[in-house]
Amino acid sequence: MPEREGMPPATAIVFALVGYFALLVCGLGVTSLVTDRNVLVAPGAGVIPGVVGATVSVAAVALVLALLLRVPRPSYGGAALLTALMAFLGYVVGLVVGVVIAGVDAGILAALTGSFVLSWFAVVVAAVGAVTGWVAVALVRTRAERPRWPWENDEDE
């Protein structure tokens, strides 16, 4: 098996997940501000569906990255596509689980899921997932060294 070019996959996954969560929170917040809509409208459920949705989405992204980054030279496009899909599906499954945990009516569950899937928020979740997959692959495939000042070179002048 050829030696890897960039950082170890476990480290890349950690960096990618931290970035994913930060971009997810920021993206959903900005989209909410721009569209003047709440991310989730579930009367009586509180914040539980959103928290569980984000948690399951992060776990789904971690799982897909752990599987994808095992390959010596993972594909940028494939990783972006699969990560976007898993981020979206994870968020939707998390919403369903969160509404069930909150003990809210089944009608609210259907309305919440439908309104999320057909909103810009779903696009944001998928886009952030795609960016995360691409970045994770870039971290493991890019050969780089730490920045060095000119006087740190080993060459004698």
Keywords for this structure?
5 helices; 157 residues
Quick summary:
With 157 residues, the chain is an all-alpha fold. The chain has 5 helices and no strands. The N and C termini lie far apart (39 Å).
What is the strand and helix layout of this fold?
Blueprint (H helix, E strand, L loop, with lengths): L8 H27 L12 H21 L7 H27 L3 H12 L2 H22 L16
Give structural notes:
The protein has 157 residues and is mainly alpha-helical. The protein has five helices and no strands. Helix 3 (76-102) packs antiparallel against helix 4. It is elongated and about 70 Å long. The mean pLDDT is 89.
Order of helices and strands: HHHHH
Treating each run of at least 4 consecutive H or I residues as one helix, how many helices? 5
Contiguous low-pLDDT stretches (5 residues minimum) are: none
Question: What separation lies between the terminal Cα atoms?
Answer: 39 Å
